[in-house]
Fold this sequence. Notes:
Organism: Halorutilus salinus
Strand content: 25-35%
Shape: globular
Pfam family, one: rSAM_target_put
Number of helices: 2
InterPro entries: rSAM_target_put
Oligomer: single chain
Region (Disordered): 1-24
Number of strands: 4
Amino acid sequence: MGKLSSEADELREETWSADLERPEYAxxxxxxxxxxxxxxxxxxxxxxxxxxxxxxxGHPSDYLHGAVEDEFDGVRxxxxxxxxxxxYVTRVHVDE
Length: 96
């Protein structure tokens, strides 16, 4: 499984953002989904993670939202906005 940083195995007890729009994600939608799911796994209950995805893959409701909802119970997925740089922000709330 892909890792987002050297702290990838730590549970984050905070609201945070996962940068999935770096160049290595531009041509690999599978990596976006894999690392997005990993980010949700690393988010403690009661917090949310913003999944910031590369614009090359289009709207995240077409490929990411369903993957998150299929993988996890007790999460809420919401589209937030399109970034000025062309990417998209999806917020995943890990409910208590």
